[in-house]
Design brief:
- By secondary structure, the chain is an all-alpha fold.
- It has one domain.
- The protein contains five helices and no strands.
- Helix 3 packs across helix 4.
- It starts with a helix and ends in a 10-residue tail after the last helix.
- The relative contact order is 0.14.
Length: about 80
């Protein structure tokens, strides 16, 4: 169940909720991504290296949901 959707939060409440609950998790995830990319033993041929590069490349798009005032489900606005 999606708290924002089912609680019918207004735009300000939605932003506040996402900043409080989602932003710290997303921030920690991207710190982890950066740290993994710094590992010298992680060669470019490693599938994880490719995945990390993809995530880093699309950082802006992946954090966009925090700041928008729409209900997002499976990447669809």
């Amino acid at each position: 169940m999606n708290y924002i959707r089912h609680s019918k939060l207004d735009k300000g409440q939605t932003l506040a909720y996402r900043l409080q609950h989602s932003k710290p998790i997303v921030h920690a995830f991207f710190i982890w991504v950066y740290e993994q990319q710094q590992r010298p033993e992680l060669l470019p041929s490693n599938p994880l290296a490719n995945d990390l590069a993809y995530v880093s490349e699309y950082f802006t798009y992946l954090i966009f949901f925090i700041y928008i005032n729409f209900y997002v489900q499976n990447g669809v606005l």
